[in-house]
Amino acid sequence: MNSKTNQNINVGVDTGKFQLDIYIRPIGHFFSVTNDDKGIKEAVKQLKRYQLERIVIEATGRLEMPFIMACAESKLPFVIANPIHVKRFAGAIGQRAKTDKLDAQLIAHYGEAIKPPLSTLKPDIMRSMSDLVARRNQLLAMQTMEKNRL
Predict the structure, then answer these.
(1) Phi and psi at residue 35, in whole multiples of 5°?
(2) How many CB atoms lie within 10 A of CB 103?
(3) How far does Cα 125 stand from its chain's mean position?
(4) 117, 114, 115, 118: which is closest to 93 by C-alpha?
(5) Integer Cα distance of 83 and 78 in angstroms
(6) How many alpha carbons lie under 13 Å from residue 66 in its C-beta half-sphere?
(7) Least CB-packed of 13, 24, 104, 138 within 10 Å?
(8) Are residues 119 and 80 in contact, defined by beta-carbon separation less than 8 angstroms?
(9) Mean pLDDT, consecutive 10-residue segments, the chain of 150 residues?
């Protein structure tokens, strides 16, 4: 299936712990892959068939990072979207239903309508430092909770 077109193709990715649900708009193609190395490679392989404007994925507490890293390595255009912005967009268009397929469609529609700017990855050292700071904040919060329990 060679799908090189002149359309503005936006992809919505709904991230789950074990699965990625992917919707390609306006073509209407939906597929799911596992959220592991094998599934991510398959998703990237399928997405490379298209001339993509952007792949939009919500920030979901680092579950999206392996997919984002694969997109960056493959030079695919991606956007890490703020989940609050996507939720507000859903409210604005009156979409209340929640399934994985509908979420992927909504995210793709958000990318097409809003056209959020493409994201870039921080250098490796900056990502490592950011991860360490985030973990430190988690540990401090846990320490405070334990002190309060005492």
Answers:
(1) -90, 65
(2) 22
(3) 22
(4) 114
(5) 15
(6) 16
(7) 138
(8) yes
(9) 66 95 95 97 96 95 91 96 95 88 95 95 87 93 96
Is 9 in contact with 24 (CB distance < 8 Å)? Answer: yes
In the 8-state DSSP scheme, what is residue 70? H
Tokens coding 50: 């298209």
Residue 13, burial from CB neighbour count under 10 angstroms (0-12, 13-18, 19+): buried
Token pair of 109 as six digits: 């529609």
E strand map for 41-90? 52-58, 78-81
- Which whole-number Å values give the CA distances from 56 to 90, 135, 142, in the listed order? 15, 26, 32
Looking at residue 96, its amino acid is R
| Longest Cα separation, the chain | 63
